[in-house]
């Protein structure tokens, strides 16, 4: 319809101009008394011929222009359909940093933004100090960066390209890499745990060798020291003999803790109540607490029986209580609790010490790591090893007011 009106206007204008020319030509003929047969017939014929030629040429030009526009629209549609099918968040910007196109994923995340400036889409009122989009236009090189938006991590890739009409554009793709980053952190954590397990395996092999090569000679030496110390001629050196025997016993206890760490087979367990184990240990722990001018509180909850090795769990309780007492000043209170939480029987040992630094927390359970002047660094390693054999997990909470260890036992195993 528009083309018909255009053709009509063109013919009218052409007719007026051609008519004016003929009128002037006719006046010129009259002025000089020339005669021309059928002047207006020739004029009309010429008008029709020239009008047809001009109309054909105009139609051809307009059709070519229309086809070109339709072709550009089709190419745009294909291009935008391609961008819309990408799984990332895709946005296309022109040289003025205005949004030319945003795919469905981008619109779902940030809303409709076509025609807006890029920094307006991000919720800013002023352009960025160092606009990377301008850098992409200037250098014609792809850029990559990471961007945090609403607690999600996005990887942004920007690449310049030319549109089908020749204009310069930048495609900016955003990919949510939050899960990938979390997986990378988890992988690093697992690698750290594997390294720790390898160290523990090495320590276990060392423990086995040390136990077999040293324990028997130590027993022999200790026996001879006791024999010599009992003779009357050595009574004046009895304190020296006692000191040597104590040191041998200390070395033997270290080897025993090594053996507890190296042990990898399943513990011999039976169904029993954690409160029963604690009641047997309570007099020993209470005596140790009172001798240090400290207090102890035992809060036993109603807990079901669990499958554990009582001797090994007793070792865990004594180690945790000993660490708690050593961390407190006189007058401090050591609290032991048992309760049920989320399908687990929980043993909680809490002290009122100065707490553990974050740097030390990451190293707890590593053999030979200790913050004590005379510690061996094997107590917590032994606890973690025993907990693993008894299907339990150990974690802790610590601040400047004290440290709380939690040993969580599975209740499910009791019904096997």
Task: Characterise the protein shown here.
The two termini are 86 Å apart. The chain has helices spanning 2-31, 39-85, 104-110, 118-121, 132-139, 178-230, 238-262, 274-291, 310-327, 358-361, 379-389, and strands at residues 89-93, 99-102, 143-149, 152-162, 168-176, 270-272, 295-300, 306-308, 333-341, 344-350, 392-399, 402-410. The mean pLDDT is 77. 54% of the residues lie in helices and 19% in strands. α7 packs parallel to α11 (379-389) and α8 packs parallel to α9.
Task: Provide keyphrases for this structure.
54% helix; 11 helices; 416 residues; five-stranded antiparallel β-sheet; Beta-Lactamase; alpha+beta; Helix Hairpins; five-stranded mixed β-sheet
SSE inventory with pairings:
Elements: H1 2-31, H2 39-85, E1 89-93, E2 99-102, H3 104-110, H4 118-121, H5 132-139, E3 143-149, E4 152-162, E5 168-176, H6 178-230, H7 238-262, E6 270-272, H8 274-291, E7 295-300, E8 306-308, H9 310-327, E9 333-341, E10 344-350, H10 358-361, H11 379-389, E11 392-399, E12 402-410
Parallel strand pairs: 7-9
Antiparallel strand pairs: 1-2, 1-5, 3-4, 4-5, 6-8, 9-10, 10-12, 11-12
CATH homology superfamily of the largest domain: Histidine kinase-like ATPase, C-terminal domain
Overall, the morphology is rod-shaped
Which fold name is given in CATH as the topology of the largest domain?
Answer: Heat Shock Protein 90
Straight-line N-to-C gap: 86 Å
Examine the secondary-structure arrangement and name the CATH architecture of the largest domain.
2-Layer Sandwich
- The helix count comes to 11
Low-confidence parts lasting 5 or more residues at pLDDT below 50? none
Strand order of the largest sheet: 2-1-5-4-3
Number of DSSP strand runs: 12
Q: Which structural category fits the helices and strands?
A: alpha+beta
Order of helices and strands: HHEEHHHEEEHHEHEEHEEHHEE
Count the domains: 4
Instruction: Give the DSSP E fraction (strand runs of 2 or more residues).
Output: 15-25%
State the CATH class of the largest domain: Alpha Beta
* Main beta sheet: 5 strands, antiparallel
Mean pLDDT: 77
Helical residues, percent: 40-55%
Give me the Rg, rounded: 46 Å
């Amino acid at each position: 319809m528009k083309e018909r009106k255009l053709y009509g206007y063109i013919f009218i204008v052409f007719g007026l101009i051609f008519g004016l020319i003929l009128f002037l030509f006719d006046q010129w003929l009259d002025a000089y008394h020339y005669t021309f047969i059928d002047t207006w017939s020739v004029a009309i014929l010429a008008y029709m011929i020239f009008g047809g030629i001009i109309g054909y040429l105009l139609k051809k030009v307009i059709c070519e222009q229309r086809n070109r526009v339709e072709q550009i629209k089709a190419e745009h549609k294909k291009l935008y359909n391609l961008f819309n099918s990408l799984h990332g968040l895709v946005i296309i910007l022109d040289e003025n940093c205005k949004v030319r196109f945003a795919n469905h994923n981008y619109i779902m995340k940030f809303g409709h933004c076509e025609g807006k400036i890029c920094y307006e889409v991000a919720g800013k009122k002023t352009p960025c100090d160092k606009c990377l989009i301008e850098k992409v236009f200037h250098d014609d090189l792809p850029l990559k960066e990471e961007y945090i938006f609403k607690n999600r991590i996005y990887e942004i890739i920007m690449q310049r390209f030319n549109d089908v009409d020749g204009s310069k554009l930048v495609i900016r793709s955003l990919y949510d890499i939050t899960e990938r980053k979390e997986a990378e952190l988890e992988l690093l954590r697992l690698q750290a745990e594997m390294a720790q397990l390898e160290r523990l395996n090495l320590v276990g092999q060392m423990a086995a060798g040390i136990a077999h090569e040293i324990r028997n000679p130590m027993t022999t030496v200790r026996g001879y020291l006791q024999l010599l110390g009992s003779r009357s001629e050595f009574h004046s050196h009895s304190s020296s003999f006692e000191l040597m025997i104590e040191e041998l016993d200390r070395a033997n206890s270290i080897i025993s803790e090594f053996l507890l760490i190296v042990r990898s087979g399943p513990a011999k367990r039976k169904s029993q109540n954690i409160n029963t184990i604690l009641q047997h240990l309570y007099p020993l722990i209470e005596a140790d607490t009172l001798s240090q001018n400290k207090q102890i509180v035992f809060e036993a909850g109603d807990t079901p029986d669990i499958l554990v090795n009582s001797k090994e769990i007793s070792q865990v309780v004594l180690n945790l209580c000993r660490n708690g007492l050593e961390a407190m000043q006189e007058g401090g209170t050591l609290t032991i609790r048992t309760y049920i939480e989320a399908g687990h029987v929980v043993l909680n040992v809490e002290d009122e010490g100065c707490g553990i630094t974050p740097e030390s927390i990451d190293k707890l359970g590593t053999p030979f790591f200790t913050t004590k002047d005379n510690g061996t660094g094997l107590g917590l390693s032994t606890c973690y090893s025993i907990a693993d054999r008894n299907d339990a997990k150990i974690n802790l909470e610590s601040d400047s007011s004290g440290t709380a260890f939690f040993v969580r036992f599975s209740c499910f195993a009791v019904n096997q």
